[in-house]
Amino acid sequence: MLIHVGDNDFVNEVENYKGVALVDFWATWCGPCKMISPIIEGLATEIPEVKFAKVEVDENPQISSKYRITSIPTLIIFKDGVVVDTIVGFRPKHEIEKMIRLHI
How much is the pTM? Predict the structure, then answer.
């Protein structure tokens, strides 16, 4: 499952979620974000037990600030609403998948 979340629904969709969620912090102007997007979309269909969410940082400054997003793409993995891992910058699919599976 891949959803788009923002400042208004982040708490309900991610912080209150029971299970593993990966959040992709991105921006429309970010080249590496465009490269990682199809990887995230593919993993969202391949790993249905994980919730995948995207947060556009320019449109959602509160949540981006809360998680101290200073470089994008930043992927944050949550388990039961708690941050358990962070990936900054582009990574190949196998590295992202390995990090996710550590927390399932």
Answer: 0.95
